[in-house]
Amino acid sequence: MRKVLIATQKPFAPAAVNQIKAVFEEANYDCSLFEKYATQEELIEAVGEAEALIVRSDKITPEVIDAAKNLKIVIRAGAGFDNVNLEASTANGVVVMNTPGQNSNAVAELALGMMVYMARNQFNGTSGTELSGKKLGIHAYGNVGKLVGKIASGFGMEIYAFDPFIPEEVITNDGVKVCKTVEELYSICDYISLHIPANEHTKQSINYDLLLKMKDNATLVNTARKEVIHEDDMLRIFKEKNKFKYVSDIAPDNADILKEEFGERCFFTPKKMGAQTAEANINAGVAAARQIIGFFENGDETFKVN
Ligand code: 3PG
Q1: What are the tens digits of pLDDT across the range 51-86?
Q2: Whose CB has fewer CB within 10 Å in the chain, the N or C terminal residue?
Q3: What are the structural domains of the chain?
Q4: Relative to the CA of 81, which ligand 1 atom is closest?
Q5: How far is the CA of 274 from the centre of ligand 1 (A)?
Q6: Segment 180-196, tens digit of pLDDT
Q7: Atom of ligand 1 at shortest distance to CA of 272?
Q8: Is 236 helix (H, G, I), strand (E, B) or coil?
């Protein structure tokens, strides 16, 4: 019997776990659950027997790969795979996949929810503003960016996008205007919604020069990764633009300073909440289970990222 371990520090919704287990039961796979672990050492100990892992933002370091002697495949149930060490995986013959698109709607809904929350001054009783008629800039037009545009158009926002990797007509076909440069996007929009991955090209790329281009009363919405922000530069921008707002799904390392000095202009979720819905957990978790079975039974490597 193939051994699968679901190793999720931040657990899937119970309904998702039940559905994932049912998929493996039908395939006659042995699936066990390892949730809410406290340390990386516990994870390293738990992976010993696993031939397949399903993870979320769990850190799959070279030490984890090394400890999992039977491991053949890791599925990141979600989009971003910056938490999985691809070099160590490849070196050990381990296939890594993600489940693109499966949790996108949940993240997109949160991005719009965060915009409303900031436009209404965190519901503090004072008069806020509306999204209707405002310009939204979507930085990277992938699965999440596209859905953010779709939902935002229902709010009556005017939508722009910058994504050098997506053909222009794909964006314009959705009624979204294309910006030729990232600087143009940042300078014309009232809201910028970030959907770039965290990698060697994007880490700390949202820096002073780019943030300076934003309107003085603009709002930056980050449901991507905290690592893409240059945090010292962000602090500087907060000091220089006294109406600038930043809302992020997961706190930056300098969250305490930002909250203390500019509390009304920033908000950070205590845990990454974007994909934390029952629907997203079910979609991503069941897709992960099916991808594992497809890999072992048919050699299917669709969505391999290494
Ligand atoms: C993703 O990359 O899919 C999202 O950031 C969700 O991450 P999570 O599964 O850790 O909530």
Answers
A1: 999 999 999 999 999 999 999 999 999 999 999 999
A2: N
A3: 3-102+276-298 (3.40.50.720), 104-268 (3.40.50.720)
A4: 2
A5: 7
A6: 999 999 999 999 999 99
A7: 11
A8: helix
